[in-house]
C-alpha cells in the first residue's frame, strides 16, 4: 500500500478520527476525482501514526448495484458510538434530493454499509454535510445544512436521531441562516442564481464549556471557515456569529481534533478548486472559549 503525504492526497471535506486504541489517525473525505458531475465511486480512507505519512487509499465505502444514489458522494465523517463506527455522508441521485445517510462498520476502515434505510435528513429538502452531536443528556442529533440552491439563504439545522442512529425523530430546527453572519457574501450561479451558502457544520465544546459550531461560507469570493457560539450552551442556541472568519484564504469545511499529544488542530481543505484541493492541519489556540489560528 502506498505511503503518501497530504500534498499527494486530493481530498475535500477532510475528517480525522484519532483512534486511541491503536494509536492511529484515520483520515476520511470526499475522495472521488470529480465530485461534481461524475458518477460516485465511493469514499477512500487513509491511516497514519504521525499525521505526516499516510497509508492508503483503502476503500472505506463502495456502493452496491442497488444503492439508491450515484451522484455527489460528499463529506464522510466517522464517529465512534456504542462500540461501532458510524459514517455520516451526503449522497444524491437524479430527481432525488441530496441528503445525509448513516452507514456503519465494525472497523474504522470499513467496509461501511447503509445503517439508515434512507437519508435521515428531510427527503423533500436539498441537504448536505450532516454531522453527529451528542448533547449533555446523551441524546444524538444530526446537524446539517439546508442548501442554498433550494432556499437561497442556506441554513444550519439540527434534528434529533433515534438512540440507534437509524432514523430521525421529530422535526428539524433551524439554528441560523448564512445571512445572519455579517461576514458572509453572496455567491452567484448561472443555474441557481444568487444566494448565501452554509457548508460543513461541526460542533466543538471548549474547555470552559462553551459550545461552538464551525461552518463555512464565502467571503469576497473565497471559501472561508468561521465559528458561531451558542449563548445557552445548548445545540438549540440561540447562536451568535464571530465577526470574522477563522480562516479565509480559500479553504474550509473544517473540523477540530486533538492529537495524541494534546495539541488542537483544525482540519480543512484548500484551495477550494478541483482537482487542486488538499487536506491541511492548522494549529489552534483556545482561550476562554475563543479559537485562533
Gross morphology: globular
What is the number of beta strands? 24
CATH superfamily of the domain at 3-200 and 254-259: Glycosyl hydrolase domain, family 43
CATH architecture group name of the domain at 3-200 and 254-259: 5 Propeller
Strand neighbour order, sheet with most strands: 1-5-4-3-2
Beta-strand proportion: over 45%
Mean pLDDT: 97
Query: How is the main sheet built?
Result: 5 strands, antiparallel
What's the gyration radius in Å?
18 Å
Q: What share of residues is helical?
A: under 10%
By CATH reckoning, the class of the domain at 3-200 and 254-259 would read Mainly Beta
The SSE order reads EEEEEEEEEEEHEEEEEEEEEEEEE
Structural class: mainly beta
Uncertain regions: pLDDT < 50 for 5+ in a row? none
In DSSP terms (H or I, runs of 4 or more residues), the helix count works out at 1
- What is the terminal-to-terminal distance? 34 Å
Would you give the CATH topology of the domain at 3-200 and 254-259?
Tachylectin-2, Chain A
GO biological process, one term: carbohydrate metabolic process
Organism: Paenibacillus cellulosilyticus
Family: Belongs to the glycosyl hydrolase 43 family.
Pfam family, one: Glyco_hydro_43
Amino acid at each position: 500500500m502506498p505511503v503518501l503525504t497530504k500534498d499527494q492526497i486530493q481530498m475535500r471535506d477532510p475528517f480525522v478520527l484519532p483512534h486511541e486504541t491503536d494509536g492511529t489517525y484515520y483520515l476520511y473525505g470526499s475522495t472521488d476525482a470529480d465530485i461534481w458531475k461524475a458518477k460516485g465511486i465511493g469514499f477512500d480512507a487513509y491511516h497514519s501514526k504521525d499525521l505526516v505519512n499516510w497509508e492508503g487509499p483503502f476503500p472505506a465505502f463502495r456502493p452496491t448495484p442497488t444503492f439508491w444514489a450515484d451522484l455527489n458522494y460528499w463529506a464522510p465523517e466517522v464517529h465512534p458510538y456504542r462500540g461501532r463506527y458510524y459514517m455520516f455522508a451526503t449522497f444524491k441521485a437524479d430527481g432525488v434530493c441530496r441528503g445525509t445517510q448513516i452507514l456503519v462498520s465494525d472497523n474504522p476502515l470499513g467496509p461501511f454499509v447503509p445503517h439508515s434505510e434512507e437519508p435521515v435528513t428531510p427527503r423533500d429538502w436539498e441537504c448536505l454535510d450532516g454531522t453527529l452531536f451528542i448533547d449533555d443528556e446523551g441524546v444524538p442529533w444530526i446537524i446539517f445544512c439546508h442548501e442554498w440552491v433550494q432556499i437561497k439563504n442556506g441554513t444550519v439545522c439540527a434534528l434529533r436521531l433515534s438512540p440507534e442512529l437509524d432514523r430521525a425523530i421529530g422535526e428539524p430546527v433551524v439554528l441560523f441562516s448564512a445571512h445572519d453572519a455579517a461576514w458572509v457574501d453572496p455567491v452567484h450561479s448561472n443555474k441557481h442564481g444568487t444566494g448565501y451558502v452554509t457548508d460543513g457544520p461541526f460542533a466543538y465544546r471548549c474547555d470552559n464549556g462553551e459550545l461552538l459550531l464551525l461552518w463555512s461560507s464565502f467571503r469576497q469570493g473565497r471559501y472561508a471557515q468561521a465559528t458561531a457560539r451558542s449563548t445557552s450552551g445548548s445545540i438549540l442556541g440561540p447562536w451568535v456569529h464571530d465577526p470574522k472568519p477563522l480562516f479565509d484564504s480559500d479553504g474550509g469545511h473544517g473540523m477540530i481534533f486533538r492529537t495524541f499529544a494534546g495539541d488542537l488542530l483544525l482540519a480543512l481543505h484548500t484551495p477550494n478548486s478541483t482537482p487542486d484541493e488538499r487536506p491541511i492541519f492548522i494549529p489552534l489556540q483556545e482561550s476562554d472559549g475563543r479559537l485562533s489560528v
